[in-house]
Amino acid sequence: MWGYYTQQLIHSIPFFLKGLWMTIAVSLLSLIGGSLIGFFAGVGRASRARWLRRLLSVYVDSIRGTPFLVQLFILFFILPELGIQIEAFPAAVLGLTICSGAYICEIFASGIEAVPWGQREAAISTGLNRYQQLRFIILPQAMRTILPPLVGQYVLLIKDSSVVSVIGVLDVTRAGWLTVQRIPEGILVFGLVGILYFIICYPLIHLVNYLEARMTVQKFRL
Amino acid sequence: MLEYFNFRVIFESYPLFMKGFLSTGWISLISLFLSLVVGTLACAGRLSKSRFFSTPAAVYIETIRSTPLLAQIYFFYFGLPSLGLRVPELQTGILALTLNSGAYMAEILRAGMQSVSTGQIEAGTSSGLNYFQRLRFIILPQAIGVTIPPLLGQAIVLVKDSALLSLISVMELTRAGQVLTSERFMPAEGFFTVAVLYLILYFMLKFLSIWWQKRLIFRQAV
Questions:
Q1: Which of A102, A185, B158, B177 measures 20 to 30 Å from A130, CA to CA?
Q2: What is the pLDDT along chain A (222 residues), one digit of tens a residue?
Q3: What radius of gyration, in Å, describes the C-alpha atoms of chain B?
Q4: What is the residue extent of each domain of chain B?
């Protein structure tokens, strides 16, 4: 019987690859959107304007304090009540963007605050304005602290993309869920799902470790 | 939309929300303690010098970290029956949560133990303490204080991850919102209340973490 099910599973591999493509699509779009939101929010969070910091911490705390599933349900079920008709895929990308934006905001903010204050003083005394300070002095140095946790957050984003399967987006997890209704061998089917996610995430995790090691050496050299 | 926001339904469904809230609390607490046990074993295995223990531990940790929690939950939910084991949903969910959280606990514990400076361990060795005595009198007392904040962070993650158990029909807080959506067609009231209740749990744990860090600072200053 295992042989029969394994054969069926091998026939379903194109279906899983379609799901893999969907996972990559959702993750990539949310990655770009979340990084953009996170970048501007992070710069704002590290700024001197207290009202901006407070406003952004409301945003960040609401996202960090609630499960992504609840956020997704709120978007998917409540936006139609407000009159905005939204499909599953856009709702998924929107939800994942907003969620990851909050975490990336924290990463950017702590990276910017990690740059020594003396650098900012030197920038101000050299006559650079706020934008020039950020662009030429603060951000290049902050990127060293930001890059490893940022890539780590991308891994978390790819894993969180599995949750969007519950509102019908046909990603790898949903492909597995649909397949297991036909092929009742949960271990085989979700073993395959796990292998597909593993192929994407494991190299990225090693990239994070590599980046951390490289960044640390440079820091001590200064 | 707010003029139609039906607070009466929320008061009527108060038992449902409370049941879900307490259920989420219990599930998170039980998973936290069980995953501490699993994490301790995995950490001991990872740090062990013999490859017989360190390789399975490393495989376990890397697999969990590279695959999404939802895929792991489905793996056990659909996979255990195919092995012939009929486990109720609640226990399956707690098993998946425990194994998932155990891997991250192992990393937290490892970081905590490695934060104790080697000078302390050398002093212990030169004073004639054996491995277990060093562990008990020197390493663990110093490591515990450092480990508590990430541990509370992991507790917050567990509370949010437990929301995924609603997808295998475990009665918990997100499920309460789903019930309100499917039975009374009121997703806004349901999920906003659920979000607020999750935020209550989040801020409780956050203040606990801040209190502990303040306590740690005072202790170290003295």
A1: A102
A2: 667 888 888 888 999 999 999 999 999 999 999 999 999 999 999 888 899 999 999 999 999 999 999 999 999 988 888 888 888 899 999 999 999 999 999 999 999 988 888 888 888 898 888 888 888 888 888 888 899 899 999 999 999 999 999 998 999 999 999 999 888 888 889 999 999 999 999 999 988 888 888 876 554 444
A3: 21
A4: 2-221
A61 reaches B (C-beta below 8 A): yes
Cβ-Cβ contacts under 8 Å, A160 against chain B: 68
Contacts of A110 (CB under 8 A, 6+ apart): A145
Q: Which two tokens stand for residue B34?
A: 């069980």
- Per-residue model confidence as pLDDT tens digits over A25-46: 999 999 999 999 999 999 999 8
Rounded to an integer, what distance in angstroms lies between the CA atom of residue B72 and that of residue B58? 17
Are residues A159 and A201 in contact, defined by beta-carbon separation less than 8 angstroms?
yes
**From the list A66, A165, A173, which residue is nearest B195 (CB)?**
A66
> Given A65, A78, A158, which is nearest B203 (Cβ)?
A65
Residue in A69, A81, A190 nearest the CB of B71: A190
Residue A32: which domain range?
2-221
Minimum CA–CA partner of B156 in chain A:
A65
CA–CA distance, A190 with B78 (Å, rounded to integer): 8
Interatomic CA distance for residues B152 and B167, integer angstroms: 25
Q: How would you write A123-170 as a 3-class SS string?
A: HHHCCCCHHHHHHHHHHHHHHHHHHHHHHHHHHHHHHHHHHHHHHCCC
- Determine how many CB atoms are found less than 10 A away from the CB of residue A175: 25
Buried b (16+ CB within 10 A) or exposed e, A95-119: bbbbbbbbbbbbbbbbbbeebeeee
CATH number at residue A142: 1.10.3720.10
Chain B residue numbers with beta carbons less than 8 Å from the beta carbon of A78 are: 187-188, 191
What percent of chain A is predicted at pLDDT more than 70? 96
CATH architecture of B2-221: Orthogonal Bundle (1.10)
Residue A203 at interface with chain B, using a CB cutoff of 8 Å: no
ipTM: 0.88
Q: Residue A17 is which amino acid?
A: L
